UniProtKB/TrEMBL annotation:
It holds the Pfam family CRS1_YhbY. Residues 1-97 form the CRM domain. It comes from the Bacteria. The keyword Nucleotide-binding does not apply. The keyword RNA-binding applies. SMART domains: CRS1_YhbY. This is Ribosome assembly RNA-binding protein YhbY. InterPro entries: RNA-binding_CRM, RNA-binding_domain, RNA-binding_YhbY, YhbY-like_sf. The gene is yhbY. Keywords: RNA-binding.
Length: 103
């Protein structure tokens, strides 16, 4: 399901106060990081990822890789910070996704 404009705006407002929970550094993005990000998305639905100064990765490339591998959606890219969203498959974690569906 592709996010509509209003849904993205809502998610951006929800993500505004979040701290990045992942930092991608000089090791770049690897399978272990992708698995951890997928697990975090399952529990939180909305996360921020920070690309550190010492990484060779480009934010848009990381966003594309994560969208393919974790089946998430990129809400926003600001500089070196990515905001990712994926509706949780478990009922008990579906706080944000219920609100997104109602928009």
């Amino acid at each position: 399901m592709e996010l509509r404009g209003k849904q993205k705006r809502f998610l951006r407002s929800q993500a505004h106060h979040l701290q990045p929970i992942f930092q991608i550094g000089k090791n770049g993005i690897n399978d272990a990081v992708i698995i951890q990000i997928a697990e975090a998305l399952e529990k939180r639905e909305l996360i921020k990822i920070n690309l550190l100064q010492n990484t060779d990765e480009i934010a848009e490339d990381v966003a594309r890789i994560l969208e393919e591998k974790t089946n998430c959606q990129v809400v926003q890219i600001i500089g070196r910070v990515l905001v990712l969203y994926k509706a949780s498959s478990k009922e008990k974690y579906q706080r944000i996704s219920k609100e997104v569906r109602s928009i």
